[in-house]
Design a protein that fits this description.
Oligomer: single chain
Number of helices: 5
Strand order of the largest sheet: 3-2-1-4-5-7-6
Helix content: 25-40%
Shape: globular
Amino acid sequence: MKAVQITQWCARFITEQVQPGDICIDATMGNGNDTILLSSLCKETGHVYAFDIQEQALAHTRQRLLDADVPQNYTLLLESHTNMDHYVQSESVSCIVFNLGYLPGGDHTKATHASSSIEALTKSLSLLKKGGLISLCIYSGGDSGFEERDAVLSWLKNLDSHKYLVIRSDYYNRPNNPPIPVLIIRQ
């Protein structure tokens, strides 16, 4: 088995989850990789809502979507992921993807923060349909510090185990604070 990056690891579960016609959310659009994946999986009959607060992310993602020739089944939003509940109904979303940290290749001072990430994650729970999946990649250390990682992990530990299954994985033997992949499944 070859080494697997965190985004590839999460993409395996996202690919199993998302079906044609599904509604999906890319909560942290970044460079558009997850938006492209979700768009291609939910096909013409589905829809992807992608959020980011940086114009650079929106412009880059828009171009990448056009270049990837995926269905035009997406809405790119220049706003916080804390507003995702304004765009979709409760219990209607199949998959929500979060990558916490900063935009790769972007301004490292513009990163996600514990308070807004937990607010968005909390709202995400009510948007998921039964069997729905949240894919969460937590990047920490270096520029982004550990406050967000620790707060999000504490929040996850306290989710109702009768309603949500939380699966945390670790790159256990990697140095320099490797990212932490987490899956949340609504039961």
